[in-house]
Design a protein that fits this description.
Number of strands: 26
Structural class: alpha/beta
Shape: globular
């Protein structure tokens, strides 16, 4: 077992005070017998500057007093220390960088932040290479920072290159970091994640009232959201800090358990990837080109029952998704939709293929084959090679069939094809798949997702994940700002339900700007995608 710690602290514009806070938290982690501690992002200086020259002046440099003190404290306690700072680089560049110091005080690795968030684009330069995987006696360690965890590629790349333990330093006000974006990266890759966030103001205290008023948000929404945590490969936190106040959280973990990538049904979620299908992710810019869909769309998930299906269609529901391999013949589905404009999605076994089927009152509109193999279906050997976009009166829809829902890459392919809505007939077998996985697929791609499945007990499961028009601080909110950065509105299926309805918003898929200058889909660095198109190591 390895004892790891996450430290949350406040950092302002006084570098000496910030250093004292960092050393205090390292000492506290050592007092708890931690072998490794993760500190937040931008520990040396508040991430707010007059201009790029100011940011460069305030940045750390290799071997300066700030970093020397951190290295010495790591050596004193014989522990690993990961810290996020800004670094002054050659040629006037300034990067946000994660540094890992070893028990001897040596710098074992560094990771320049590849995806910048909001005003960071005004002051900093994005990293030019992907983060290394660092072999240590504790295990294989990967590093990332804040915004890099709001999309899937950075952590996916680290996992594909063998990382067992991911260290995330954050500087975030967003409450959905702790509830979604941190734990999902552990679950979808079956790795450990240690994440350390800030507390206290993320902007200069004297300017905070004016900035908050200009943005139209309460001042406390511009504080670090805390909830630093340690998350297991199942996506369940084993330790979590409070929302406010300095804190250390500690847990004993077995790093090597991250080598087992098998789902409960025996599917290896990395080995079952099909990298040859993901080549478009390296070539496409990710910029949205298709026109916006309808402002709203009535949807439902439903049991495979013609009476229920007919009732939903007659009541004006536009899109109905049935569970994977629902026991309902296609002609009966067509009859249930008679005299309506509704579409239904289900899946069927077709010899050695598993196909999603789009049906309306006139018959079958089209098919989508499952792309990835799965141990659940030993007969599934005839796999599809791409995703089909269905142009419907209300927007562009893609069907994700069965266990294709396990793979972040599937939904990225949908996003670069400008899908508005994704219908998912699936059979989730682990808790994270609906609670974290599909929630994040909607969030990180700006996709409306409608998913239906069957529980092991036989009941209906699933959810409707609708994009909200209230998206980050850079849009005008219809209500008070909630502190959410990128999270859909989720309508789950209560136990015993035969159907659940929800309204999704196809038009909102056009807006992918999670912050000023940061597009969730278009701003993914190309070199990381090269890794995505290769086999796992």
């Amino acid at each position: 077992m390895t004892r790891v710690a996450a430290a949350q602290l406040a950092a302002g514009t006084d570098v000496a005070v910030n250093l004292d806070a960092c050393l205090r938290m390292i000492d506290e982690a050592a007092g708890a017998a931690a072998e490794l501690v993760v500190l937040p992002e931008f520990c040396n200086h508040l991430s707010w500057y007059a201009d790029r020259a100011h940011a460069h002046r305030m940045a750390c440099t290799a071997g300066d007093s700030f970093l020397t003190a951190i290295a010495q404290r790591a050596r004193r306690h014989r522990m690993y220390v990961k810290i996020g700072v800004t670094l002054a680089r050659a040629g006037g560049r300034t990067t946000g960088t994660g540094l890992l110091f070893g028990p001897d005080g040596d710098l074992l690795g560094e990771s320049d932040k590849q995806i910048l968030m909001g005003a960071e684009n005004d002051y900093l330069d994005a990293g030019r290479s992907e983060s290394p995987v660092i072999a240590t006696p504790l295990g294989r360690i990967g590093m990332y920072a804040c915004m890099e965890g709001v999309i899937n590629e950075v952590t996916r790349s680290l996992a594909l290159r063998g990382a067992q333990l991911l260290l995330n330093s954050l500087n975030s006000f967003a409450i959905d970091e702790a509830s979604l974006h941190i734990p999902v990266r552990a679950a979808e890759n079956k790795v450990w994640v240690v994440a350390a966030n800030k507390v206290g103001p993320l902007l200069p205290a004297e300017q905070l009232p004016a900035i908050a008023a200009r943005l139209g948000v309460p001042q406390d929404r511009l504080h670090g959201a805390g909830e630093s945590q340690i998350v297991g490969p199942d996506g369940i936190p084993v330790a979590m800090a409070p929302v406010t106040g300095e804190a250390i959280v500690v847990a004993d973990i077995e790093v090597a358990t991250a080598d087992d990538k098998h789902r409960r049904d025996g599917t290896d979620i990395l080995a079952a990837r099909r990298p040859e299908l993901y080549a478009p992710l390296s070539g496409a810019s990710g910029e949205r080109h298709a026109p916006a869909g309808a402002s709203t769309l009535s949807t439902a998930v439903s049991v495979a029952d013609t009476t229920v299906l007919a009732g939903l269609a007659a009541d004006g529901v536009d899109l109905i998704v049935l569970p994977e391999l629902a026991n309902l013949p296609i002609p009966e589905v067509v009859r249930a939709l008679h005299d309506t404009t509704a579409h239904a999605v289900l899946s069927v076994r077709d010899a050695d293929a598993h196909r999603g089927v789009l049906v309306n009152a006139d018959g079958v509109v089209g098919y989508q084959s499952q792309l990835h193999p799965t141990e659940r279906h030993s007969w599934l050997t005839d796999l599809g090679d791409d995703l089909t976009v269905f142009e419907l009166p209300w927007g562009r829809m893609i069907i994700v069939v069965g266990d294709d829902a396990l793979f972040p890459e599937t939904f990225r392919l949908a996003a670069i094809q400008d899908a508005d809505v994704v219908a998912v007939p699936c059979s989730p077998t682990e808790l994270w798949e609906l609670r974290l996985g599909l929630t994040e697929r909607a969030a990180e791609n700006r996709l409306n997702v409608v998913a239906a499945g069957t529980a092991e007990s036989g009941g209906l499961v699933g959810a409707i994940y609708a994009l909200s028009p209230d998206f980050t601080l850079w849009t005008a909110w219809s209500g008070p700002f909630t502190g959410v950065i990128s999270h859909p509105i989720v309508t789950g299926v209560p136990p015993g339900s035969t159907n659940v309805r929800g309204v999704v918003r196809p038009a909102e898929a056009v807006n992918r700007n999670v912050s000023k200058g940061t597009d969730l889909v278009a701003d993914r660095p190309s070199w990381r995608l090269d890794t995505m198109t290769k086999e796992a190591q």
